[in-house]
Design brief:
The complex is a heterodimer of chains A (113) and B (111). Helix content of chain A is 0%, strand content 50%. Chain A has 113 residues and is mainly beta. The radius of gyration of chain A is 14 Å and the shape is globular. In chain B, strands 2, 4, 5, 6, 9, 10 and 11 form a 7-stranded mixed beta sheet that branches. A 4-stranded antiparallel beta sheet of chain B has the order 1-3-8-7, with no helix packed on it. In chain B, strand 5 and strand 6 form a beta hairpin. The chains are: A mainly beta (113), B mainly beta (111).
């Protein structure tokens, strides 16, 4: 079945540092890929998405590129802020699955001054 | 624009008690889902619905039941709560693979 693997956290960075959170997936066919963010005490918010190979999703300075050859969708940001501290989830939705999401286990990011 | 609304936000149950979690969406979405979130395990799908009057099992359906009598509402029931059902429950909805909208969550503790 479909699965998502993302790097374990927590990831601790200083403000303005470069961020990479790795995500790889296993799926048949052509899934859509997503990054969600969860701030403390809140639900998940869609951060960005990509629906086909080589697509780049971007939002709020975050980017991720759908790499079918390496089955990856790594999240990057050039300069993180304290307000980016949250848990980040990589997820996929495959064709013919009623748009169900399969999630990774989440990566906690802590940004310090 | 409320999006996805879950009630209640917090609840403590005794083992064996029953309860219903309510989810309402105002976006006219066809698909609705119930997930549970546990530390170190990400989110796991409990049940889902592809339209009014339809429901289907997800990854971890045991101990839960659902109903979708109206398109905008999706109810999750626990008939006899167990400590293993202590978790944070999230409802979500979408129309396609564009990404789902999530509610704020219900934190349930079973003692």
């Amino acid at each position: 079945g479909d699965s998502v693997t993302q790097m374990e956290g927590p990831v601790t960075l200083s403000e303005e540092a470069f961020l990479t959170i790795n995500c790889t997936y296993t799926a048949t066919g052509y899934p859509s890929l997503f990054w969600y963010v969860q701030y403390p005490g809140e639900g998940l918010q869609l951060l960005l998405k990509a629906t086909k190979a080589d697509d780049k999703g971007s939002n709020k300075g975050f980017e991720a590129t759908y790499r079918k050859e390496t089955t990856s969708f790594h999240l990057e940001k050039g300069s993180v802020q304290v307000s980016d501290s949250a848990v980040y989830f990589c997820a996929l939705s495959n064709t013919g699955t009623a748009s169900k999401l399969t999630f990774g286990t989440g990566t906690r990011l802590q940004v310090t001054l | 624009n409320a999006g996805v609304t879950q009630t209640p936000k917090f609840r403590v149950l005794k083992t064996g008690q029953s309860m219903t979690l309510l989810c309402a969406q105002d976006m006219n979405h066809e698909y609705m889902y119930w997930y549970r979130q546990d530390p170190g395990m990400g989110l796991r799908l409990i049940h889902y619905s592809v339209g009014e009057g339809t429901t289907a099992k997800g990854e971890v359906p045991d101990g839960y039941n659902v109903s979708r009598l109206k398109k905008q509402n999706f109810l999750l029931g626990l008939e006899s709560a167990a400590p293993s059902q202590t978790s944070v429950y999230f409802c979500a909805s979408t129309t396609n693979r564009a990404g789902a909208f999530f509610g704020q969550g219900t934190r349930l503790t079973v003692v």
